[in-house]
Amino acid sequence: MSVRMxxxxxxxxxxxxxxxxxxxxxxxxxxxxxxxNSSVIMSCNYTYPTxxxxxxxxxxxxxxxxxxxxxxxxxxxxSQRLQYLGDKQxxxxxxxxxxxxxxxxxxxxxxxxxxxxxxxxxxxGVTLTVxxxxxxxxxxxxxxxxxxxxxxxxxTLTDRATFIWYRNSQPLTERRDTNNQLLLQSVRREDAGRxxxxxxxxxxxxxxVYLNVTYAPKxxxxxxxxxxxxxxxxxxxxxxxxxxxxxxxxWFKGGxxxxxxxxxxxxxxxxxxxxxxxxxxxxxxxEKYSDAVTLNIMYPPRNVSVSxxxxxEIVEGGSVTLIxxxxxxxxxLxxxxxxxxxxxAVGSGQxxxxxxxxxxxxxxxxxxxxxxxxxxxxxxxxxxGKNVIVITAASGGGLFIIIFIIIMCFIK
Length: 412
Known about the structure:
It contains no helices and 37 strands.
């Protein structure tokens, strides 16, 4: 067995109440300490005078003087767990299985013979104590340190007792320790959990004790919500870290402290917030910074303007190229061109060729909005023409026709 019994006592011969010699019961142990849910053997022998034949043998508990003791084999709480291993001659040993604290009583053997007055109750009996196993462990241990867990019981366990250790109800290894200690060297965070112990060949498992492994912050990171940040709206930064005990969180914009707490919120966000952010996670074991994140803030086109390639004054038949530029995120891809006092667009694309005089402006678009530029003036002058002028004159009695071809430029 895995339980050490009390020292063996000398044979106790108990005299019959009437004083006749030869009657008695001797118990191997007057006190037995058993583990919860284990089986207990109560060994005993009995004697009686020659000439008597034993008719009935049974065990009882907590006998009261003057009251007929009950037979435990007829008690529903014992009938399925009590097994008589003795006989009707001299051996009165029993086995009691699956003991619990409710079984902590004084047990006595009683027998009767075939002759009048031939009854005997063996005092003082066997006192049964039921104990459980307990795990002793420090409440917490720092990662990298060593820790020892001890499996203890109020019962005295034999040196041959072998132990099985469990973490979170799973056996740690197939190896069974030859002592009642479990040594965890260079503890890791994965070693945290609920530890319990048991004795080999016993079904009872001790109550679990939680081992808390503390460590400095690790795996510090920042997440952004929502994933797409639009100017004028609100957003939050969330700092997560693996640490025990929980860490204190600080926030930094660039290198400047801007707040504390696991969540950092920004309302009515603008492009001025487009800078690197990072968090610092700190507990009593150390600190660690996250990688920096840069806010990518989306906004509609602004500062839309039109530039002119070359001169805004051209000769009829030529053209001037207008280019639309804007500041936006994401960059504007759609552009529309308008001539003042006209409701419909006269062109599209980032560049536009003006062929006539007028005031023109562009409109830049992205998925977050649009904006118009100021108008620019384009002036187209008339183009060059050719005129032939015929002049007639007289000289020397002859008619000379002098033809002058004059090329003139004029304004239409």
